[in-house]
Amino acid sequence: MKANVLVTAQDLFFSVFRASDAKEVAAITRREVPQRYEIDAGPDEVTIAGRRFYRLSYKAPASGLRWRILSTDARCHALTFTFTGTDPAVLDAAEKGLSAISFSGTAPLCIDGYASGDNVVEKTSPSFAQRYNTIPVRVIIDAEGRVKHIHLLSAFPEQSEAILAALRTWRFKPYRVDGKAVEIETGIVFGLPRMAVK
Q1: Which of 44, 45, 85, 125 has its CB 3.0 to 4.6 Å from that of 3, i.e. a possible disulfide?
Q2: 162-171: b or e for each residue (b if 16 or more CB lie within 10 Å)?
Q3: Helices (H), 39-134
Q4: Other beta carbons less than 10 A from residue 144's beta carbon
């Protein structure tokens, strides 16, 4: 017998499936499990490869198919491994295989909504003809409050140029942890906002 795996990354800034971290993604997933399935356990906090995961297990009594879902936080995303199969021992082995996973490097803190209100000290609005689409943008803000990196997730070329030029002029209040300014990552939406689902 084999287990199948699906790996997904839930964007914590822009998804319509609003959650602030992997724990909340696991809780929402638990609430969304159809009533015809049986919950075996979870979501429970477990440690795998030195990382905090949230595990949810459930099954379909009619078919014997089982799901083992493990979510962890990774760079402003909830990274989720969904194992499916009929044999619990195979799912146990698949979960154990995650102990070999490694995440390299350090990432800035994820601060949702930081690019708004009094946090923005100076900004220029991008100028483009139409605002008929949603344009999600991730920015990394350095410890001095300057935009260090810009990543447009979806935009037309003329929108990209305008947004990049504008964001390079933005300045923020430095984000502080225990009195020390630190680098952070946040999201900004230009154009039409997306509708959140709770």
Answers
A1: 85
A2: bbeebbeebe
A3: 88-97
A4: 11
Cα separation, 114 vs 119, whole angstroms: 6
pLDDT in tens, the chain (198 residues): 588 999 998 888 887 767 888 999 999 999 999 999 999 999 999 999 888 999 999 999 999 999 999 999 988 889 999 999 999 999 999 999 888 888 776 788 889 889 999 999 999 988 877 667 888 999 999 999 999 999 998 888 888 899 999 999 999 999 999 999 999 999 998 876 655 444
**28 token code pair:** 């929402």
> Rounded to the nearest 5°, which phi and psi values hold at 94?
-65, -45
Q: What angle do CA 141, 166, 193 make, to 5 degrees?
A: 85
CA-based nearest residue to 137, from 152, 125, 124:
152
Contact by Cβ (8 Å): 54, 45: yes
**Tokens for 133?**
């689409």
Say if pTM beats, i.e. exceeds, 0.70.
Answer: yes
The residue to which tokens 């799912």 are assigned: 91
Question: Which domains, and CATH codes, for the chain?
Answer: 4-100 (3.40.1000.10), 109-191 (3.30.2420.10)
Report how far residue 46's alpha carbon sits from residue 143's, in angstroms, rounded to the nearest whole number.
33
